[in-house]
Write a structure and sequence with these properties.
four-stranded antiparallel β-sheet, 31% helix, three-stranded antiparallel β-sheet, Immunoglobulin-like, 172 residues, MYXO-CTERM domain-containing protein
């Protein structure tokens, strides 16, 4: 086998291993929900100290009220597209446990009353096995690659000791 072919194969395997390692080491985050015109999206921030509330379809730059159940939390003003984005601290949500209703009420683009309701999602209790899996697979791949390189160097190459142009026909 010519040296150039070995080099190409080695480069291809190395690039494949690097690509898989990079893909596995990316942080695992849940896909965010798309906020359509009739959706209220609630997501906990990474540290779990704040709840992001996003609603759409309200009158541009209009004032809306954000409530937890029947008690008001705060008021917010929409952007030029009628999208409402509010960050609610956990201290204001102390009364509301998982499953409590978050309500955004205001005026729609046509001037009618618009109310979006959603439940407070539960916070993640702890880290699970899915947080460790990418690191485990990446480390296993690295160990296998290093072991392969070490064993290949240790075994030696009989072609390196043979004269140029000589091909081994029989295994020893």
């Amino acid at each position: 086998m010519p040296i150039a072919t070995v080099t190409r194969r080695f480069a291809a395997v190395l690039l494949l291993a690097l690509g898989l390692s990079c893909a596995l080491l990316l942080p695992a985050t849940p896909a965010g929900a798309v906020a359509g015109s009739d959706r209220l999206v609630l997501n906990w921030e990474a540290d779990g100290a704040r709840l992001n509330v996003v609603g759409a379809g309200y009158r541009a730059r209009d004032l809306v009220e954000v409530r937890l159940g029947s008690s008001p939390i705060q008021q917010a003003r929409g952007d030029e597209n009628g999208r409402i984005e509010v960050t609610v601290p956990e201290t204001l949500l102390a009364a509301g446990t998982s499953g409590s209703s978050i309500v955004i009420s205001g005026r729609s683009v046509s001037g009618t009353s618009r109310i979006l309701i959603s439940a407070v999602p539960p916070k993640a209790a702890a880290h699970g096995p899915s947080d460790v899996l990418p690191w485990t697979v990446g480390a296993g791949t690295l160990v296998i690659l290093l072991a392969g390189f070490w064993l290949r160097r240790r075994a030696g190459s009989p072609a390196a000791t043979a004269p140029r142009g000589y091909r081994r026909r029989h295994a020893a």
